[in-house]
Amino acid sequence: MRIGIFICHCGHNIKSTVDIEGLKGYFKGLNNIACVEDYPFMCSEPGQALIKSSIERFGLGRVIIAACTKALHQDMFKNLVRDAGLNPFLLRRVSIREHCSWTGEDIEKNTSKAIRLIRAGIYSSAHYEPLEEKQVEVNKSALILGGGISGMSAAAFLARAGIEVYLVEKEKELGGHVRHLEDVWPVRERGKDIIERMTEELKTLNNVHIFTSSRLVSFGGSFGNYEAVIENSGGEIKVIVGGVIVAIGFTAFDPSIKPELQYGIDKRVITTLEFEEKMHELPIKEGSRVAILHCIGSRDEIIGRPYCSRICCINAIKTGEAIKNRFKDSYVESFYMDVRSHPRGGEEFYEDTQEKGLLFTRANISEIIPEQGGLVLRGEDTLLGMPFEREFDLVVLSIGMSPPKDNQEIAGLLKITLDKDRFFLEAHPKLRPYDTALKGIFIAGTCSGPKDMEESINHGRASAVKLYGLLNLGYAFIEPFVAYVDPKRCSGCRMCEQACVAKAIKFDEGLHIVRVEEAACMGCGLCNATCPSSAIALKGYKDTIIDDEISALTEAV
Amino acid sequence: MAEGNKETPEIIGFACSFCSFKASEMAGSLRMKYPEGVKLIEVPCSSRVDPAFIIKALMEGADGVFVAGCHPGDCHFIKGNYYTRRKIAALKEMFRAFSIDEKLRLFWVSASEARRFVDKVTDMYNNIKETKR
Questions:
Q1: CATH 3.10.20.600 is right for the domain spanning A141-250+403-475
Q2: B7 falls in which pLDDT band (50, 70, 90)?
């Protein structure tokens, strides 16, 4: 057998902590190794060309790609191997980035680990067999979790493209946080009006099924045929969908976990969201003194929210402007760390409000002291390096975004991952920002990190386009890792039949052996581990494959 | 039974492709560090792990073996991890007779629990390093 090994540097990601030359030197000397190549980026076009030409030139029988984990670029590498004339199931991916170069710092130890991992790939792939992928039909339907602005945008696109859409919202009405905004910058409309326009549009489309006050309770299946159970007061509804978009939004930061801010204790301390809702009922008048505090629940390591929430600067400026517009003689002072009014037109808006008399002071506020007359803010002016105390009638906290409350539950049901801040993790931050590691499951809007309205809408639509691209094909390939029986070894003890959860194993009374119904087999391999005579095996995870992988990992380097 | 290197234990982990293996990928992406001695073998479900694999790994010199699967009730294959739990319990009982039950661990790690994965494997590594001294 002729084996080709392709080692990726991944720029500096692998190269800086694994000795690539050492790896090459080790594998060059082994039997059956036809070529060992390295390249800065195997996923780039020249990298792909190198693999393809090597397969053709050396007549490779096995291709080992030592690079990132197989959750990334697997389809691309499979197609590449197929184009070069080799069965794609003779390709073995070895993860030396997520499982080696990123988890250890010592070059020598990492290199020795990488050698063992690649060797495990070589030994086990020797037992690989050419397999054919099964083609399955894809349901042209989508489940959208979360009926906020992002989910609604995705639903509208998919429905117009002819996809059956199931939109699930846990609240009584669609619209999420946007519904409660009194003044949406920069269009200066009420959030409720925007949402109602969008809801009307969705209602004219007869392939959108809206489930309000509903939640997802169970989820299973695979791309093209995901099975979801939605629960509401009317009972449980089971739907089969091709793909899913997760757009469950965010939870507003609750400032009461910072008791020094007096939120929830003193009624004169409110959040920007509360300001939007009861703008006209506030106890302020001409001549009132109002303080606005930026970065509440953002850029704060101590409470575990080190990220910038991106929306709160504009919200703070907008709040100040609203007060100034109503009461020209009020005194409004904003206490900021940095003003990041990044959306288009944001900087001009910041300048304009300053001209209207809104004051900006760079400061750290340490505490708010409630007094009979007013609220005393104690802090430090970080430009002058001077401590100060100032009295105000009202304090508005510009709160940031926290991860959605149901993140753990949804991540668990869908088996997708969360990042370190507990927002949903994308497959690749730059190249695949809408995808999750699972095929056909996309994320949209603020559940994958703080975004403003415009970005959330775009994110929702982009996820919808990506999902539409997959669904519109109408078919998909699923991995052919199913069990098969060696009739010569099977003694007909029927232990596997009892163990099989999918009921895919049937007993043949005439021949006194079992057989596997491939369409029903889920590919867990439990039968393989149960069989006392090694007669039933799971393709791709046969005993010999795992046995040799163990040997390769334990053998000395 | 072959003895591994005392200074740096070698641990082989069988990780379910739906949860623990994903958690390990995530741990890597988040640049979390864990000992180099920990090496994973991906299995479609923790129930694919034949007790013979665990015995083989220990016979060939691994200082420890762990099986990592989905939390009870979360199995992609409905109840594969319940089979695993019973199999490992029986195997551990057998290992206890040889005082090597500490070399085998079973734990549940979901796809989103990268921190838990790292904590579990690091704890096992340190424990084995300590007992081997």
A1: no
A2: confident
Contacts with A550 from chain B: Cβ below 8 Å: 12, 41, 53, 56-57, 60, 62
Query: How many angstroms separate the CA of residue B45 from the nearest CA in chain A?
Result: 5
How far B73 CA sits from the closest chain A CA (Å)?
11
Name the H helices within A401-524: 407-414, 453-472, 495-499
Please identify, in words, the CATH class of the domain defined by A480-539.
alpha beta
Q: How many CB pairs under 8 A join A and B?
A: 144
CA dihedral A505, B88, B19, A9 (to 10 degrees): -110
Query: Using one digit for the tens of pLDDT, what is the confidence trace for A182-227?
Result: 899 999 999 999 999 999 999 999 999 999 999 999 988 888 889 9
Residue A233, exposed/middle/buried by CB under 10 A (0-12, 13-18, 19+)?
Answer: exposed
What CATH code is assigned to B11-132?
3.40.50
CATH code at A3-131: 3.40.50
Nearest C-alpha in A relative to B77: A524
**Residue type, position A357, single letter:** G
Are A253-400 and A480-539 equal in CATH topology? Answer: no
Taking alpha carbons only, the member of A308, A334, A305 closest to residue A397 is A334
Inspect the interface and report whether the beta carbons of B27 and A103 lie closer than 8 Å. Answer: yes
Domain range list for chain A: 3-131, 141-250+403-475, 253-400, 480-539
The pTM (predicted TM-score) of the whole model is: 0.73
pLDDT digits (tens, 9 = 90+) for B95-117: 999 999 999 999 999 888 899 99
Q: What is the DSSP letter of A494?
A: -
**B44 with A481: Cβ contact below 8 A:** yes
Confirm or reject CATH 3.50.50.60 for domain A253-400, answering yes or no. yes
Q: What is the mean pLDDT of residues B58-68?
A: 95
Instruction: Please tell me which residue of chain A has the smallest CA distance to B29.
Output: A98
